[in-house]
Amino acid sequence: MTANVTKLEENKVRLDVEVTPETVKQGVEAKIRELGRQVRVPGFRPGKAPRRVIENRLGRDYIYMEALQEQLPGWYSQAVVETDLRPIDQPEIHFDDGLDEEEGFKFSATVEVRPEPDLGDYKGVEVPRREVEVPEHAVEESMEELRGQFATLAAVEERPAKEGDFVILDFSGERLAGGPVEGAQAEDYMLEIGRGELLPDFEENIVGMNPGERKQFGVTFPMDYSEESLRGESVLFNVHVKEIKERDLPPLDDEFVKEASEFETLDELRAAMREQLEAAAEQRVGGEFRGRVLDVVAGDAQVDIPEVMAHEKAHEMVESFERSIRSQGMEPEQYYQLAGTDHHP
């Protein structure tokens, strides 16, 4: 297949396509096989009648027209891909002659494509680029993060719980007005204090408790809580702290480096950490820089949006909005009726 593009007026192009005889023949034979399975031919099982029998029964013109209707959309799509076009509307297809297995097939498609913007004088645009900097504390934080991945938990006996500890506890909650709260019960729950797993007021009440201690306290759920039925609700919790554990970090030395990485020494690991952070920072800075350049160029660009493109975008936005309405359990027609508006863009 060959395809050539000719630019026309008002963002339209004409796509002239030549389909090879071999491709035409493949399309015709595929349609004959399909029709052979559908048409009853006396003396032959479905799909077993030879081509000449199918042609005599249905007519070659009918077969060619059926093959053309089935193959033409695919040929058009292939030509669009090969020529890197970006159509925004349905094409107008034109051809003078039908399919020919000896000569091939020619057709043209006139279609509106995405407009090309006038970028103005964008050459020589000056945009500041931020320098890549990786402070030493960022390297140390990465080192500590790796160290934390190899930490173990050690039991605490001599002191109360504090932020950063891991506490194993049982708890149950009930409304002050009476009745249990669904989902507010757990046994042997491991809580890392300060991580924000549970409500802040709940975790604050755990701080200062000792292993084996029991405590009762009230917590009021915030008005923006995910479970609507608990918003603003006051709940009384009964808590039993069973164990307190603290993170036991391995020493940051060469032996740790050998166990935790592919490097041999602490200096090698620190240098690799810095290199990774600098590469990530370079990627971020490069992205920011490209974004600023595009903003400057786009600010001076001129482009006319075709009506069909604006209509398609409006239709897409309406469909997205209606999907959102349905996901909330309401039909769009009901919403439009309640809102007193017309939904057609």
Automatic annotation (TrEMBL):
It is found in: Cytoplasm. Gene3D superfamilies: 3.10.50.40, Trigger factor ribosome-binding domain, Trigger factor, C-terminal domain. Its main location: cytoplasm. PROSITE patterns: FKBP_PPIASE. Residues 326-345 are annotated as: Disordered. Residues 164-245 form the PPIase FKBP-type domain. It comes from the Bacteria. GO terms for biological process: 'de novo' cotranslational protein folding; cell division; protein transport; protein unfolding. GO terms for cellular component: cytoplasm. Keywords: Cell cycle, Cell division, Chaperone, Isomerase, Rotamase. One of its GO terms (molecular function) is protein folding chaperone. The keyword DNA-binding does not apply. It catalyses: [protein]-peptidylproline (omega=180) = [protein]-peptidylproline (omega=0). SUPFAM superfamilies: FKBP-like, Triger factor/SurA peptide-binding domain-like, Trigger factor ribosome-binding domain. Involved in protein export. Acts as a chaperone by maintaining the newly synthesized protein in an open conformation. Functions as a peptidyl-prolyl cis-trans isomerase. Belongs to the FKBP-type PPIase family. Tig subfamily. This is Trigger factor. It comes from uncultured Rubrobacteraceae bacterium.
